[in-house]
Amino acid sequence: MAEDFSVVVLASDLGIDARPFLTRSDEVDEQENWHDCPQYLEDEDFSDLDLLQFFTLQGLDKSGNRIFRVVGKYFPARVVSAERLKKYIFQKISNQCPEGPYCLVYMHSTVQKDDNSPGITILRWIYEDLPSDIKDRLQLVYFIHPGLRSRLVIATLGRLLLSGGLYWKIKYVSRLQYLWEEIKKGEVEIPDFVKNHDNVLEHRPLTDYGIEPDPFQLAEVQSSSFSLNRYENRWVS
Fold first, then answer.
1. Cα dist. 135→13, 54, 129, 230 in Å?
2. Non-local CB neighbours of 101 within 8 Å, separated by 6+ positions
3. What's the average pLDDT block by block, 10 residues per block, for the chain (237 residues)?
4. Sheet of 102-107, strands arranged across
5. In terms of Cα–Cα distance, which of 88, 83, 168, 165 is closest to 132?
6. Which residues of 101-138 are buried (b: 16+ CB within 10 A; e: fewer)?
7. In angstroms, how far is the first alpha carbon of the chain from the final one?
8. Is the whole model's pTM more than 0.85, yes or no?
9. Do 59 and 187 touch, CB atoms closer than 8 A?
């Protein structure tokens, strides 16, 4: 008798990576306790990822949670595999924050989907594959500068692709000024490009919704047209 099979249809334009859905159940069973094997990570060198500074331990939020800063723009999604990313995150949290509650401050500012985003299903797979202790100690995910697309994907597919525990831990932070209500200034380092992006959003709030008002700054051309009309009047006279 032929083996049972199932069909999973995913929209390609939503940044969904289908690999976690295509993993065979027997392969999952073999890898279930990967984090319990010390030799699994002993020979792994993550110095190249450390240099990128996309996942670093910082200070504390106002609730006393240790902060792991995640800078999306610093992550090279094209060259780092999901498996290696999972090992790296596990090692960082286990070594630098072996006990106690912690939170993630994820900076989505100027992230490019193809270059910096591993995909929502990859993140789900990594989270679900971590030891239960690490998952339980995660208190909050501060999602800084979420774009319209990110909000829509999480709102429509978040409950399906993310476990309930992770879905309800996400807290959107549209401006840095709102982050300081949860975290004291100086407890987490903010890159300059994140500050600059925050200033852009402050002066152009429609950018939050994917609308760029006056992208070519045509409003500033009025003074030039006025001067041209002035010279035209002189020529006519």
1. 29, 20, 9, 69
2. 63, 64, 65, 66, 137, 138, 139
3. 51 48 48 53 82 96 97 92 93 95 94 82 85 93 88 75 78 94 96 94 71 49 46 50
4. 55-60, 66-71, 102-107, 138-144, 170-173
5. 165
6. bbbbbbbbbebeeeebbbbbbbbbbbbebbeeebeebb
7. 96
8. no
9. yes
